[in-house]
Design goal:
- This protein is mainly β.
- It has a domain of 116 residues: Lipocalin.
- It is built from one helix and ten strands, in the order αββββββββββ.
- It has an eight-stranded antiparallel β-barrel.
- About 3% of the residues have low confidence.
Length: 174
């Protein structure tokens, strides 16, 4: 019971202190407004964000060079990747959609959906595929993309974590 009485006394003391200090007064006070003009500046081209019309169009068929990668399990093992075909079927501003086709370790072919999002720099595109692999592509030229792909493991990598680099070239329409 004593702690309850102490709590009540402490609360009453705080309330009296607030009333005496004037923190609860209802008298409005005038606060001056800042009217300083902020000068406008223009960002330099290196810092300017790309607008939706400035993202490169990556739709089309992209085929990689014959590349290599690495499995990581209890050891690091080099592995031949072979050619990959990535098809970007549509693009809406900074978002691209499509699928990729490649040969799996067991000899069968995989067909996986993927989506990519451009960084505001207009050159970097971050992608994720259907089973959860992540890739970062860099547009080197209108028809060349350098790509780094990582995967934590699964059927496509024989259960191993995986990392690789690939250089893709857009195929010209016939």
């Amino acid at each position: 019971m004593k702690s309850f009485q102490r709590s009540i006394l402490l609360f009453a003391f705080l309330m009296v202190t607030l009333f005496v200090a004037g923190c609860t007064s209802s008298t409005p006070q005038t606060v001056p407004l800042m009217t300083t003009q902020v000068p406008t500046t223009t960002a330099s081209p290196g810092n300017a964000l790309a607008s939706m019309t400035e993202y490169p169009n990556i739709t089309g068929v992209w085929i990689s060079d014959d590349e290599a990668g690495y499995y990581l399990n209890t050891t690091i093992q080099p592995v031949a990747i072979g050619k990959n075909t990535w098809i970007f079927t549509s693009q809406h501003g900074h978002i691209a959609e499509g699928y990729k086709v490649f040969k799996q370790p067991d000899g069968t072919y995989a067909n996986q959906t993927m989506a990519g999002i451009f960084d505001p720099d207009g050159k970097s595109v971050y992608m994720i595929d259907q089973p959860g692999g992540w890739a970062k592509g860099t547009i080197v030229s209108p028809d060349t993309m350098f790509l780094v792909l990582t995967h934590t493991g699964g059927k496509d990598t024989g259960g191993n974590a995986f990392a690789m680099t690939m250089t893709f070239h857009r195929q010209k329409s016939q």
